[in-house]
Amino acid sequence: MKGSLRSRLTLSIAAVALVLIAIISSLSSYFINQQFKAYITKQQVSTLNEIVYSLGQQYNTDTQTWNVEYVHTIGMYALYDGYIIKVYNESNQTVWDAEIWDMSTCIQIKEDISHQMLLKFPGTNGKFSDTDFSIELMGNKIGRVNVTYFGPYFYSDNDFDFLNQLSSILLFVAAISLLVSIILGSLIAKRISSPILKTINATSQISQGDYKIRIKDRSNLSEVDHLIESVNQLASSLDKQESLKKQLTSDVAHELRTPLTTLRITIEAMLDGILEPSPERLKSSYEEVLRITNIVKDLESLAILEDGNLKLEKADVDLVDLAHQIVKKLEHQIHEKEMVVSIKGKCPEISVDSERMTQVMINLFTNAIKYTQFQGNITIEFEETMDDVVMMVSDNGSGISQDELPFIFERFYRADKSRNRSTGGSGIGLTIVKSIVEAHGGNIQVQSEVGVGSCFIVNLPK
Ligand code: ADP
């Protein structure tokens, strides 16, 4: 059966409290009873001594007679305390006998005590028996007293009252403790469950598309805080994805609209005979078509890479050689911007998909050319570490601001949008680079400072 976290926690805390209270109550009750028994047993001895002593005081040595009146008082007090006494003188003649004096009370008291003791302690082996004590006065024996009482110990009505009251107090304390622990347990459970409930609420809102939601509550449990942190991160990354998706549609539309409009207007004008289909006009139209084709090609590559079923056709490749070949291919653009490109370092051949790696280099090198001013410098450096081959592509170009750095590998993300419109990028290049590098088991990082330049570092496992 499923219950809510809060009720489960409350019940668990209450159950633990209940067990503890039960243990504490029964242990206290057991030890109190033991102690009380020991106390009563001691008390019985001192009562007996007192009876014997008081009886001794009622003997007059001069007249050698007993003060029977006082003996009677002592006997009656003793009787009501549960001690049935018979007092004999030196010559064994009865001085006073409780049973002779008041037989019915004696029987009544015997019955009461036996009944109460057997009721309270059903297994007790206690019973009424009698014992003789000699009565002495100043070292001389003046008689004896025969005492019948319930041994080894018995409780009076007061004692039973005391024990019953103690039990009620224990019960009351247990009930209050249980109540307090249920209330405290419920409060603790609320404190624990409330941030979790809020997190559940937030996740269900996220699942319905509300990516702006963030959980502000914090708990005093680190696991719950981690959960909240993760959910907040999930929401913000979904939010980012969502806006990238929206931007993607508008970017694709924008990227395609501009060249298509130029093409349409030019072709319409040519069809209407307004413009001559001269070689330059046809060339410029052809370039627009190329631009559209390139964007569509980039989109296609990205779709393949992001499909997850990318098959790499690996072969041993010398990356330094490959870099030289690609720089040669880009010679035209490099010359146009009067740039200096240097390739440094060396590395062993590694097994990569050379076509994909070519794409990585073209994208990184063209970016470096695109985002670096006239007469800038580009350095392509290779290095070998224990496990990796490292390629660093650095330029002294425009750089990327720290705010934009985390997003440049995202699809269609273009830092400094107004500037990029003129450079004609579509924001897919680095996404493709990252996918290819990661498909090879490597990773790519970037260090950049606005106005100083950028350095893209590609690590590929050997
Ligand atoms: P784009 O087609 O716009 O170049 P990319 O995915 O290749 O798309 O790059 C994403 C963004 O990263 C670019 O718009 C640009 O702002 C920034 N960027 C990439 N490389 C560099 C670089 N070498 N120097 C400065 N900015 C760069």
Short summary:
The protein is an alpha+beta fold and 462 residues long.
Unreliable stretches covering 5 or more consecutive residues? none
How is the quaternary structure best described? single chain
Provide a count of the helices: 12
Relative strand content: 15-25%
Mean pLDDT: 90
Classification by helices and strands = alpha+beta
Distance between the termini: 55 Å
Helix and strand succession?
HEEHEEHHEEHHHEHHEEHEEHHEE
Global outline: rod-shaped
Largest sheet: 5 strands, mixed
Helix content: 55-70%
Written overview of the protein:
- Helix 7 runs parallel beside helix 12, helix 8 crosses helix 10 and helix 10 packs antiparallel against helix 12.
- Helix content is 58%, strand content 18%.
- The protein is of the alpha+beta class.
- The chain starts with a helix and ends with a strand.
- The model has no long low-confidence stretch (mean pLDDT 90).
- Strand 12 and strand 13 form a beta hairpin.
- The chain is built from twelve helices and 13 strands.
- The strands form four sheets. The protein has a five-stranded mixed sheet with strand order 8-10-11-13-12, with helices on one face. It has a four-stranded antiparallel sheet with strand order 4-3-6-5. The chain has a two-stranded antiparallel ribbon with strand order 1-2.
